[in-house]
Protein: Capsular exopolysaccharide synthesis family protein
Amino acid sequence: MNTENTPLTRFIEKDEENGSSNFGETLSRYLYYWPLFLVCIISSLAVAYVYLHYAKPEYIVKAKLLIKAEKSSTNSESSLNEIIKPYQTGKSVEDEIEILKSRSVIQQVVKDLELWAHYEEKGSIISEDLYGQSPLRFRIIKKDQDFESKDFLITILDAETFSLEDADGNVKQFRFSDRLRNNFGSWKLEKTANFDNFIGKSINIKVKDPELATDQLLGRIEATEVNKNASVVELSIQENVLKRGKDILNQLIVQYNIASEREKERVAGTALKFIDERLSSLTGELNSVEKDVEGFRSSRGLTDISSESKVYLDNVRVNDAHLNEVDVQLNVIRGIERYVNSPDNTSTSAPSTIGIDDPALTSWVSKLIDLQLQYQQLMGTLPEKNPAFDPIRQQISSTKNAIKQNIGNIKNSLVSTRRQLESFNSNFQGSIRNLPSDERQLVSIKRQQSIKENLYLYLLQKREEAALSHASTLAFSQTVDSAYLDTYKKPLTYSLALFIGILLPATILFGRQLFNNKIQSTEQIERTGVPVTAELVYEYSKSPIVVHNKSRFAIGEQFRSLRTNLLYLHEKKKSGRVTLVTSSIAGEGKSFVASNLGVALAASGRRTIILELDLRKPKIASNFNISKEGLGLSDFLYGRASVDQITKTSALHPNLSIIGTGALPENPSELLEHIEIDDLIQLLRSEYDDIILDTPPIFLVTDAMIISRVADASLYVVRQNFSYRKHLGFIKKIFREHKLPKMQVVFNAIQKRGEYKYGYEYYTAINTQKKHSLHSFVREVSNRLLLSNS
Structure:
């Protein structure tokens, strides 16, 4: 309630035509609490600074790799690529991503960079990662099957000795030349080039199972296709050591290229082995058939065959060459069938795919080889009955099924082609039936010779291609961007802190507004249908009387505006006006409004008297520094004093008189029903222009309704963030049932949040600026920071 040591209020007319938008009003209400936002933002940024200072930084490192997936090459490489193309596995970006993230490749990266060992220098608050600059290297001499992760706290005592602290806090000294043993195997420490810089310091070494390190790295590396129209793969990893992140991605590319080269060599090597075996067999067969030709000619005295036979041989030679190729491919398919039907999951000696121009098949075979290699490596660390083998077994089984389905289709197609070629040969057989018997036999022998020669030449050609592929240095991938820093999370952390610093107070204010059961705005009151005649803005003041005769500040103009509204409320009645002032509950500022409205009316030259009819908790007399011990209204009603005896002239203005309560009665409601009240008001109407009745809160007692019989108009005081929303229904009922005459609302103690922009605001800002003290500024900032309404 606006009384002594309570808020000063300023009335501001609301300019509805130039009112701000809902967004602007909402923004203004939030900006009113700028100290809260400022403190939260500074606190969030401070927390972010401390976090970044002590926490390990987070870097996002990326690299880009171009996959050369079966596309035409440059002019200088086109001929070579055409030759070695049959010995390249069919590459697709999706397949290569799987290879990049394959366990075997990642495992090799972990091994090369020794990522299973982590070195940190122990600090007072945080430990510093020593990747790339550790003074020691943890070398495993022999690893046991049951490898357990373990931490070692090493203190370097001097150039020859160190101390080792175990989990129980026991400390032992050892020499760097010693070989030590624990539950995962035997090991020793080796010095690095940085050793001398760490003498006397403690190093924490975290050693983990390489298999576990591989699993962890697998989960951290991301490989994605950059563009569907380009065979570029982007690799990324989040690391708190920038150098380690770059080394991991660069080494991953190296190992991928090694794996690709190994696969190329495997395919070409398998083809060479297959071809050499066939050539060895054919050499003997070709020598034998050549001897048969010479022997037949000698025994039969034949020098050459007829022209008709030559035509037949020329025609059938081409067909036989195709038939040879089909037979070779069928032999390859049968070899692959035997391979995938084998129950052995550890075999990595895959059959040749020579002559099979099917990228899908070669890709599946390559994947099967990779899976069987992983299976074989896992067998070196775990028993075969371990559940860790189950996922790989399932992948091997599904891959073999895919290969079987694929080679089944290829085999059916080759068998069909072979039948057509054999049918074509049968047609040529009929064309030589009329030849002499000896010549027919010679033609048949020479045809066998031609078949062997064609097959031999075909295999020689394939052997040269395979040998060239085996020796080729052409890379099947190209590094577009080596590992580079893409994002450092320091700016992101500050941005997030700034966002939280704004979001947190905004959320608090929104929640406060959402769950606030107090009246917040004029619109809430107006929805009841009750007119709002005045809005009084909250401001602090030590004195409850804020209207002064010579005041040039806006507060005087504000109450003069309320005085003008009162004129229209009384329908321009000149004198004898009786205005009742009440509220729902105590503390809403009804006595403050009655007191200052009385002063404003008196200052305009109107004879004004204020009656203190709140016989339960009076405030008017104390507002005007009038003693409560003197005679008052209760004395008049009991017949112990006259009107002149209870009327006091205010020291603030000669036109203003006050009638206090006097002694507080035990039955105020019954006392206010006395006819003497009516007589008193009738008398005062003839002597005063305005009579203001300060009555008790109407929600609690009926005194205001009882006295309303003598009033002409009523001002119902509602205080922002103090009056309850549930009272709005009560106010609406009183208004609709006309229980108070000409009732209008005065909205009191509105927080200054910038949404009211009438001219008085500007006037007040200019004139009150000089009066604001440092104390009042600090108080105002504290109230806004603590979300206080007073």
